[in-house]
Amino acid sequence: MISDAIPLSTSDASHVSFADGYTFHVRGGQITAPGQPCPCGALEPVHQITSYREAYPQAQLSLTDVCNMGCTYCSFRDRVHADGKPVTIPLETVVQGLRTHRERLVEENARYSRIDFGLAGETMLVRHMHDTVQDLVAENLADSPVAVVWAGPMVTNATLSMTSELAEQLGPPQDISLDGPRDVHDRVRFYTGDRGGTYDHVRSVLDQVLARHPDMGVSAVLTAYCTDFVAIFRHLFEDVGARNIYMKPVNATHDKDYALNAKTLPAFRQGYTGLVEHILAQPPEGILARLLALNSEDFFMRFFYRVKDRAAQVYRCGAGKSGTYLDTNGNLYPCAHFIGKSGWHIGHASTGVEDTERRKYLDLVVDQRDECSSCPSRYVCGGGCYYQAVLTNGDITKPDGVKCDLIRFLTDLSIRLVVTLRELHPEVLDALPSPYGLTADSLASSPESAYLPAARLDTTVDDQPMSIPLAGPGRVRGGLANPAGLAVTLARRAEGLAVRLELGDTPDAVQAVRVRLQPVGESVFTLHDLAAGQWPGERYLWCTRDGAWWLAAPDMRFRRVPHPDPTWEDAHDVRLSWEADHLELLLPLPEPFASDEGLGVNVFGDFTDGGWTALTLHEPFAVLGPNAKGPLHLSGPEAPGRPAAAGVNGRMPVELTPLGRWAGLQGNTC
């Protein structure tokens, strides 16, 4: 059993060591196999952050405190009317909050932002306000630095969307709450006024939404009432068919019988152990499917991915440091969970966040906290939830010790899961999502700096075509198909970019080809864009045996949630020939290039099992030099013939450092 190794582990501030010789190195994030030397080095810039910027500064506008449900663990219900506040937010307070948020966006020089229409109450009860608030967002952020703002309701209990017309208005990136099977869900999520559980109504909506959006988010709160996390996960994955699942332990004071506390901690540990062992009991394709179905911000998976990808968190989240969390009376709070909690506001929309209050949260760097500085999980955790610290200790600087124990256990469980996959199912570990890598120059640069990868496409020395393999160990994401012989040849001609893809030994396994053309250069494509996963000015081509289409990328600055379905337009300017054993593409290139730096190019192959590969996997594209002509060769960390990088954690080339170790922007995971 995977958990057998955990009680035999020893840990200190620098290492977690297991009896079988595997070691997790706290500072660098590496996992080394038995007998390998210790790679620990000096502190990196990511360990020495004392300021905070995130890729998507968020505003949470609590439009209403009203809810049609009376969930057992709801902390907002007791805050209705607290401090004499109105139940529904006045529009003038919304305007004040947006102006405060604009000031924060200017201060952070933010390129992107997200505006959420509330968490304290059920925002669908005030649908009539949504259009007006959308207009206010556009009006009050018009002169902010952001390039794109997404706004709308992000979370719903779904019970007010039961008609097909209303259900069609839901979709990613929203999520719907479903706490597991009917008996588990209805015990804690029920209507007010003794009107019974909500499971059947939620399922009726969720089934409709998942039929259109299989990636719709489904979130579950884990309580001590049911620590059979396997049963909860299997219901969501197998019965409901969810493929974007987020499960998280309840936030509660320790005296609640449903809480995570010293008495229930062993059951929570066993619940997570059982979940991991259930996943590992599947065949390789089943392991991969279940791991992919868990959202990367799921409470266990966040630690797993941070361990796998060597990410470093010196803060728990952006609470108190970034974003705008607005109550109906104009009070500002550190994060969404604090909204309405008397005595814990950190400012007012009319005056902004108080500098002294913000400084309290900026000082919560893990290495400067007595409770955290020697913890082996500190860079995986970031210091623990500040809200849960207040619930248990009344102090944001004193994390919940029981939650800390669970996090240390989950860190060890994550390490062992990575080791087990590397030993028994390396193809599964390699197929999981991985971050892009940064060069040393990018690692030392600010978010506003132009991004350029190490990968280059230049004219071949002998003017002969160069076949670039796309298959092989570690070359596939999202699936296990890995067709031998799959290779791409590229050339720049007068008419554009010529792509020839040899389909390899199993040509029917390839179902589509995609091409990314990304302008690069100063103020065109920045490190901030890369970290945010945004592609300004991108041209994106999708090809199947039936034809080729360009993505009609949205160009609106203010965009509504949920996201609209993508729109594809016939690529009449593309020549496509798909034969039995190969395909050929000729697509026009934007002229002139956006800058003297060239043009970002990547070619993707999509497989029938849902997997994919690409010309460059560890960088988003290779730069096609502005003077490159004729047959092209790939240079850089992923060039043919370069030694394959293979560590226990992953296969990041040695010339690159995972994006999660960049000090420029921090992640904000609730």
From TrEMBL:
GO function terms (MF aspect): iron-sulfur cluster binding; metal ion binding; oxidoreductase activity
The organism's place on the tree of life at top rank: Bacteria
CDD domains: Radical_SAM
Cofactor: [4Fe-4S] cluster
Signal peptide: none
Key words of the record: Iron, Iron-sulfur, Metal-binding, S-adenosyl-L-methionine
Protein name per UniProt: Radical SAM core domain-containing protein
Species of provenance: Streptomyces rubellomurinus (strain ATCC 31215)
Lineage summary: Bacteria, Bacillati, Actinomycetota, Actinomycetes, Kitasatosporales
